[in-house]
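Chain A, query sequence.
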Amino acid sequence: MSAKIISGTEIAKQIREELKKEIKELKKRHGVTPGLATILVGDDPASKVYVGQKEKSCNNLGIYSEKINLPGDISEKELLSLIEKLNKNSRIHGILVQLPLPKQINESRVIYAIDPAKDVDGFHPVNVGKMVVREKCFLPCTPHGILELLARSGVQTEGAEVVVVGRSNIVGKPVLNLMLQKRPTGNATVTLCHTRTKDLVFHTKRADILIVATGHPKTVTGDMVKEGVVVIDVGVNRIGKTPEGKAILVGDVDFESVKEKAAAITPVPGGVGPMTIVMLMKNTVEAARNSIVE
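Chain A, predicted structure.
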């Protein structure tokens, strides 16, 4: 069998069209233009690419974008002062600080400094806590994007055996919480595996839905999954360049071997990546809507 491809590119396109209508309505009815501030500290090439993609998405949707580039030797105090100003700026509804940050800056202090009402990354402990108890909050973008991929692809999650490989605060832990909750894309039995899991293959072979976010290329191969599994590959790994100089990207899953057994699978690139960015846009629009006093 050959798997159905779950295209994050196509699903993100659907969501962008929905957001365009929402943004137009916010502007027309309330005179509000959603605004996102992105802060980039230093000149990390990958971070520059990510911030550029976010700025491009804002421009395409009609979201006001304020990109702030800061030198790599900026002090933590200066960065926290900037965040405080953005917290008070009524034109800015969402604040995103691109991670990682230089060593002299404590990432936790920076995340804590962002107003939870403008934390469109969904990283602030207030939003994390609300997510766990299923109160209204900003969901972290990649896990939220994974839920949308499953829902819009018609994947049944209720009662499913879901195995998550990777326990990061950004993907593994939140997607575990979201998929076990009583929600339309949830009600699953979830197992979380990590570097100290004794028999990874035992768990991956049980999975009806397998979500892999390890940060290592081709962690999961075809002999590690059962027939008919749905695979969400979160990883993006650069493993070299083509003769033309283009980066060769692979996921945390060995796509070629796994797709022969899977019922459905996300590609890399074009799977989870586009969803992360569009869910950030969705959170920004939601933040703008929340700011309206009726």
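Residues 140 and 214 are 17 Å apart (CA to CA). The chain has two domains: 32-117, 141-272.
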